[in-house]
Design brief:
The chain has 265 residues and is of the alpha+beta class. The protein contains 8 helices and 8 strands; from the N terminus they run αβββββββααααβααα. β6 and β7 form a beta hairpin.
Amino acid sequence: MENLVNQLSWVIPVIVIAFMMLIQMFKILREYERAVVFRLGKYMSTKGPGLIFLIPFIDKIQRVDLRVLTINVDKQEVITKDNVTVNVDAITFFRVVDAERAVIQVEKYIHATSMLAQTTLRSIVGQVELDELLAEREKVNKQIQEIIDRHTDPWGIKVVSVEVRDVVLPENMKRAMARQAETERDRRAKVINAEGEFQAAERLVDAAHMIEKAPAALQLRFLQTMNEVADESSTFVFMPIPMDFLEAFKAIKDSGVPIIKTDDE
């Protein structure tokens, strides 16, 4: 019994040490992971995915995720080019394309990319006017993406997309924009009304030219109007007076011929 206890006293530590050695020797990496291997502090290689072999207690690894990562850029108070204070936030999508450079060239590449996205967002928004920021957001997103991608390329990082998520305006600016939109709608309504009157006047001119060429059309129009009035009210009788009849009285007045008056007058 004592011999068995003595044997177990040294067998159990050996098993524990062997198990720890196996854990240090073999690592399993997923399909989207890479391991940057350092041997005694010096970069050796980038391994993965699958099962990889390491020298216990000599090789150290740092795992790198190759999937698309997202960074939420917190709200930034920015003054636009036309001196309007706005609060903007954005989302940055990026992924690691070179695990070696992402680990060696920069410390904490996710944090560094986040800080760069914040400063770039403030810089670009400060260079555009408010109308451009609201109406041409895709253009602003493209500019921010290109700048961040250019600066993170030496780090082995590819910026997939940058999206400005929200633009918060001051209350006084919202009211001013509402008044501007209302005034613009009123202007459009007046322009449409004037355009309609202009087109109606053009049609009247065309109709006058047609009647001038065919005087009988005017008489037909008189008869049509009489028919419409008779349908609406039977208590009134509409009798059109030819325009030539009125012109005759006007000609008499202009000629100075005295009008004969009766004794009663």
